[in-house]
């Protein structure tokens, strides 16, 4: 039995021990001490057996864990009986399903005694409070819970120690013990500069000890550490203290001063230390404030996608503009998109504001309408700013809008809240991403410079989204071993980019921010959004969306606008909806996780068929069709965009080209090779009219590979013809003849006479390119004769044109003119403007060769007018070259120089080979390149 049979005491603030008086009693190893600590921390409460097992062994307990706990409980009971006997106030361990309960007076456990001393000190004068708190601090005999398994954690014990220490220092400050406190607190602040309460106490001690300069230097040190580590300025209390020290106006008894303070309500949370960019948005907020000062209604809604920086912008501006609102600032987070809590009800928000305005709790009305009336009466006529952060809906906001015209309200939301514009004349501001330079500056504020190229690459990979930029900057600042190049490499992989922008908290990363927005969508809109995630397009319109979601175009348009209202898409043009780069990656991940393989394949099939059908319709408005592919009956008129003219077809291809190629590549990766080559061949028509070497080559190579993988002879033949067309357009002889010969061999094997003729036309043109003019003319004249026999106007016009080109290069100008005039006649009959331009250019060159300069100039100007109206950029460059040569031949040197300069400007990027010819022409005229 212990001293006089006294009850045991428990020590947790240091090595975990059971004490008999002042004598430690052996209880066993770490597992037993851990069990004792768990029971003592929750004294007089039941601790479940499963909770004990989890705390002692984590997620990998032994099979005998329950038996071990039962045995250790029995052992502790015997030890307690040995030192306490049957003392009426002795500690007992009771079996209390679903676990065990330690029953003892809380004061016999040092943790609970420390809490009791802290509570008592709060009601005592400074002298007595200091004594009580010093007694509480003396209970710590080392790191809390020493000697127990590492899985047993109680972080609240460190919080308790800090609270006790902070309260004791506050008491000593009021007692004027400044010199002693400087000695005590200085090493603590050096070791933990982010502990703002301790730093503030040291600032007070320094100031009141006559060391005002040291107090200011301490603030600068803490501020730098906070900015470097957290990316924010110190909290409001420390900033307030800094301002008082700067103004040499810091009273000793701060608590008494605060009680007497009658300053207006100021509920603003801390602001970010600086705001990168946003000058136009800040100016918009300033203008809104000026409206309020002028007595006009001033309600602003700041909206944008998750992570765009809505709250940061508004809070930062509010701190800067606080002087405009002398009657105070009210702030509330409405939790509109909180994944763990429902949005706050207007009734609760009204209560929060009324209490902030000084209404006592008992004075808050029970009825919501009465709260609204009281709130409005209290702020009527005042010049106040009300900030409603993270709103879900207009209905959540309306009761909180001030009635007067002198106040200003700012609402932030991921939704546009268009209803507020209708009912309350709210002004809408949609935030975009940061400018590249501002994005780099934000990263550098957090992590320091890492080289121009690296930081710009980081900013670009973060999509210039402030949340992503802050996470990237914080990751770099957190570890000296983590370089900007490492992070660029990780973000550079689209499959790992979102994971790289996650943070430790489950709801703070980029992916989590987007997920909250997605989960708030109506189910039918969410399904449409998911299906768009399968289609690897840069932008989506209502017709494509309708095709892949299986809905009408009108429904698709409505769904896209809902997604835009939730800031998951941006409408960048008429019927063109684009996700942010990171939203696109999130959406792709989401589709892969939430749609099964069959659904994804179905969506991809629908997207390929859509582009085949619409591209086929578009190409038939632009150029003669010589291949047999026909998708015009796949979609109805209502399911396709309006393509009633050449210009509309051209605009559709221009807008959809990148999407079309992305779908091609995705379909190829999914093994849909037959669909791929057909779509590539259909889209080839657009590039034949608007040739860009890299884009055209990429398209044709995708199509040819798909045809080869599918083992489709017809597909291989047409794609070889397409590749040969590229070589002819850009005069690239490498491989052109081989492609034409193989295409002819395949066409002959198929037995398709029309395909044979088309292959022969390309073979003849390839021979022309190689300078084998006689062979070329013979081959092409055979093609002309065959088309004359079959009456095939499309192929006949093409054969005549190519034959004329071969004859021109062979110097047979009269024969060439005859064939070219016949070709032009067919081109005009078929309404084929692209071929008309080619024929007119050839006739201009031929006329110049035979000295008919007036006719030559007439032909070329007609063609130039047509290229300008049809936006045939490359063709215009070729014509300007021809026109310059005609003018030079007519001794109009200035006119020739002007046309060559225009041609060079057009061709410099579009066709470097022709651009070199133009430079040579300018050199001949005495002009530099």
UniProtKB/TrEMBL annotation:
InterPro entries noted in UniProt: AfsR-DnrI-RedD_regulator, BTAD, OmpR/PhoB-type_DNA-bd, P-loop_NTPase, Sig_transdc_resp-reg_C-effctor, TPR-like_helical_dom_sf, WH-like_DNA-bd_sf
Domain OmpR/PhoB-type per the UniProt entry, residue ranges: 1-104
DNA-binding in keyword set: yes
SUPFAM superfamilies: C-terminal effector domain of the bipartite response regulators, P-loop containing nucleoside triphosphate hydrolases, TPR-like
Keyword hit for Glycoprotein: no
DNA-binding region: 1-104
Record-linked Gene3D superfamilies: P-loop containing nucleotide triphosphate hydrolases, Tetratricopeptide repeat domain, Winged helix-like DNA-binding domain superfamily/Winged helix DNA-binding domain
Record keywords: DNA-binding, Transcription, Transcription regulation
Domain of life: Bacteria
Pfam families: BTAD, Trans_reg_C
Family affiliation: Belongs to the AfsR/DnrI/RedD regulatory family.
Protein name in the entry: SARP family transcriptional regulator
Organism: Amycolatopsis oliviviridis
């Amino acid at each position: 039995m212990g001293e006089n049979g006294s009850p045991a005491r428990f020590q947790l603030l240091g090595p975990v021990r059971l004490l008999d008086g002042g004598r430690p009693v052996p209880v066993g190893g770490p597992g037993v001490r851990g069990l004792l600590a768990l029971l003592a921390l929750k004294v007089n409460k039941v601790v479940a057996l499963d909770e004990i097992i989890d705390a002692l062994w984590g997620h990998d307990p032994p099979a005998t864990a329950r038996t071990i706990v039962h045995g250790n409980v029995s052992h502790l009971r015997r030890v307690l009986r040995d030192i306490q006997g049957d003392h009426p106030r002795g500690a007992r361990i009771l079996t209390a399903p679903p676990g065990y309960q330690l029953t003892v007076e809380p004061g016999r456990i040092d943790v609970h005694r420390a809490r009791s001393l802290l509570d008592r000190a709060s009601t005592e004068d400074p002298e007595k409070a200091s004594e009580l708190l010093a007694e509480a601090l003396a209970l710590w005999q080392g790191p809390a819970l020493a000697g127990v398994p590492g899985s047993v954690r109680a972080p609240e014990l460190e919080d308790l120690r800090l609270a006790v220490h902070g309260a004791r220092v506050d008491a000593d400050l009021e007692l004027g013990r400044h010199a002693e406190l400087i000695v005590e607190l200085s090493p603590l602040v050096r070791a933990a500069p982010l502990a703002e309460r301790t730093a503030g106490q040291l600032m007070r001690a320094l100031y009141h000890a006559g060391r005002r300069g040291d107090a200011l230097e301490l603030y600068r040190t803490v501020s730098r550490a906070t900015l470097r580590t957290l990316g924010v300025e110190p909290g409001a209390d420390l900033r307030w203290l800094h301002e008082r020290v700067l103004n040499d106006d810091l009273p000793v008894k701060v608590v008494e001063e605060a009680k007497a303070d009658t300053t207006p309500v100021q509920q603003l949370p801390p602001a970010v230390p600086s705001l990168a960019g946003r000058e136009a948005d800040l100016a918009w907020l300033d203008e809104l404030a000026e409206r309020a000062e002028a007595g006009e209604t001033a309600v602003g809604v700041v909206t944008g996608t998750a992570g765009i920086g809505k709250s940061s912008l508004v809070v930062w501006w509010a701190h800067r503009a606080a002087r405009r609102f002398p009657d105070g600032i009210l702030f509330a987070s409405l939790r509109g998109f909180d994944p763990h809590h429902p949005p706050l009800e207007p009734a609760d928000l009204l209560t929060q504001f009324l209490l902030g305005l000084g209404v006592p709790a008992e004075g808050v009305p029970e009825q919501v309408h009465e709260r609204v009336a009281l709130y409005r009466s209290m702020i009527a006529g005042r010049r106040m700013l009300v900030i409603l952060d993270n709103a879900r809906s207009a209905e959540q906001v309306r009761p909180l809008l001030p009635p007067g015209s002198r106040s200003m309200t700012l609402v932030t939301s991921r939704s546009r809240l268009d209803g507020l514009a209708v009912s309350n004349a709210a002004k809408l501001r949609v935030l975009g991403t940061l400018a590249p330079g501002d994005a780099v500056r934000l990263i550098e504020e957090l992590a320091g410079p890492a080289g121009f190229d690296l930081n710009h690459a980081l900013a670009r990979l973060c999509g210039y989204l402030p949340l992503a930029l802050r996470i990237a900057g914080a990751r770099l600042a957190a570890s000296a071993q983590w370089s900007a190049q490492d992070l660029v490499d990780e973000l550079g992989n689209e499959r790992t980019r979102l994971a790289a922008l996650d943070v430790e908290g489950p709801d703070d990363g980029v992916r989590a921010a987007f997920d909250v927005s997605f989960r708030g969508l109506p189910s039918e809109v969410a399904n449409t959004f998911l299906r768009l995630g399968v289609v690897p397009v840069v932008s989506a319109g209502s017709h494509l969306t309708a095709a892949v979601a299986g809905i009408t175009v009108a429904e698709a348009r409505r769904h896209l606008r809902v997604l835009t209202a939730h800031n998951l898409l941006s409408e960048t043009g008429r019927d063109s909806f684009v996700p942010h780069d990171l939203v696109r990656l999130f959406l792709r991940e989401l589709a892969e996780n939430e749609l099964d393989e069959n659904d994804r394949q179905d969506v991809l099939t629908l997207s390929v068929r859509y582009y085949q059908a619409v591209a086929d319709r578009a190409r038939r408005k632009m150029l003669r069709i010589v291949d047999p592919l026909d998708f015009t009956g796949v979609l109805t008129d209502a399911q396709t965009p309006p393509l009633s003219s050449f210009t509309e077809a051209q605009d559709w291809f221009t807008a959809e080209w990148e999407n079309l190629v992305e779908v091609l590549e995705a379909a190829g990766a999914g093994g849909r090779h037959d669909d791929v080559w057909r779509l590539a061949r259909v889209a080839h028509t657009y590039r034949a009219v608007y040739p860009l070497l890299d884009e055209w080559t990429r398209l044709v190579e995708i199509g040819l590979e798909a045809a080869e993988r599918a083992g489709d002879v017809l597909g291989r033949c047409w794609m070889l013809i397409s590749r040969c067309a590229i070589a002819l357009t850009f005069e690239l002889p490498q491989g052109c003849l081989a492609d034409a010969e193989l295409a002819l061999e395949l066409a002959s094997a198929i037995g398709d006479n029309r395909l044979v003729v088309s292959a022969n036309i390309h073979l003849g043109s390839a021979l022309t390119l190689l300078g084998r003019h006689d062979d070329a003319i013979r081959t092409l004249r055979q093609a002309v004769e065959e088309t004359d026999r079959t009456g095939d106007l499309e192929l006949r016009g093409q054969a005549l044109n190519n034959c004329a080109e071969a004859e021109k290069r062979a110097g047979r100008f009269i024969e060439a003119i005859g064939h070219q005039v016949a070709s032009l006649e067919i081109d005009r009959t078929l309404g084929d403007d692209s071929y008309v331009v080619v024929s007119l250019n050839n006739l201009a060159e031929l006329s110049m060769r035979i000295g008919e300069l007036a006719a030559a100039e007439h032909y070329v100007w007609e063609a130039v007018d047509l290229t300008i109206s049809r936006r045939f950029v490359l063709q215009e460059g070729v014509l300007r070259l021809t026109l310059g040569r005609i003018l030079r031949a007519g001794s109009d040197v200035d006119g020739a120089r002007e046309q060559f300069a225009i041609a060079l400007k057009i061709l410099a990027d579009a066709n470097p080979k022709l651009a070199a010819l133009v430079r040579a022409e300018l050199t001949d005229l005495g002009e530099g390149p």
